[in-house]
Amino acid sequence: MNVRRLIPATALTAAVALGATALTACSGTAGAAGSSDGKLHVTASFYPLQFLAEQIGGDHVKVDTLTKPGVEPHDLEITPKQTGQLSESDVVLYLKSLQPAVDKAIAQSGVKNVVDAATLTKLEVHGTSGEEDHDHAAEGHDHAHGEAGEDPHVWLDPTKYAEIAKGFGAALEKADPGHAADYKKNTDDLVAKLGALDTEFKDGLKNTASRTFITTHSAFGYLAERYGLDQEGISGVDPESEPSPARMKELQAVAKKDNVTTVFFETLASDKTAKSLARDTGLTTDVLDPLEGIGDRSQGSDYFEVMRSNLKNLQKALGAK
């Protein structure tokens, strides 16, 4: 099973207070930055936070995202225009350390009203199997994930995603008290939907022939931890890196021992490695989407559709009964 240890993080209640405090400069009426449409302008760093801001903000916010559809968020480069967009935003919602370019741009923009989603729940380090310690920098990769082995993909656990929703909803209530009741209702509605999704995953993965899944991208530590599964990453947190022959041999043994049927790949990265392992082991391939973005190849049009597609693919691969 995945082993984890807690990173010191602000407790949820304190984080909500911090998020709200960070937004006091734009408290009052929506669009306090001088926007002509009267809406609160929110810039989200990538899709999961964009979706959350849209769901909670509703008609009272205008949400822009720095990471366009189909773009791998770790590789995002920020343009001067986007840095300017940040400085003009009423609120910026991001996940610190996931996208180094975003962290840098936020620091340069001088924007005051920033909410770091990582402070709204507990981030954890998952001791997942995979070549976590190989040198990304030596291979030309710059995927920052905080500490070695840290899994930032917290939104793939509906329960933790709901905690982030609660914190951001409270921050919007403070930023725009005139619409606080609507933000509260929208937050409650979203949290309820996420609770229902959590129940679907629990029930759908309760009885399976196998508890182990193999994936090119070790992005599913939170999901695996929540539902009692074992994630075996081919190459660790970087979906583009090449696994060693020794790791490929290990995974062949794991597949045989744990009755694994499928190697998962994602839509925003190459499926070359997954297909190579599947070919060598006689396994099939399928999509397990880390939901870092919605693109033409995504198996759904929003967070809930893609998560339910992930559940369906996991049930099939694990032999759900």
Q: SSE string, helix = H, strand = E?
A: EHEHEHEHEEHHEHEHEHEH
Cα separation of the termini: 21 Å
Largest sheet, in brief, is:
4 strands, parallel
- Which oligomeric form is depicted? single chain
Specify Rg, calculated over alpha carbons: 20 Å
Q: In order across it, which strands form the biggest sheet?
A: 3-2-4-5
Number of helices: 10
Shape: globular
Mean pLDDT: 82
Q: Percent of residues in helical segments?
A: 40-55%
Low-confidence stretches: 1-34, 127-149
Overall structural class, as computed from helix and strand content, comes to alpha/beta
Approximate strand percentage:
5-15%
Q: What does this protein look like?
A:
This protein is α/β, with parallel strands linked by helices and 321 residues long. The protein contains ten helices and ten strands. The chain has helices at 12-22, 47-57, 80-88, 100-109, 158-175, 180-204, 221-227, 245-257, 272-281, 303-318, and strands at 4-6, 40-44, 61-65, 91-94, 114-116, 124-126, 212-215, 230-233, 262-265, 284-287. 50% of the residues are buried.
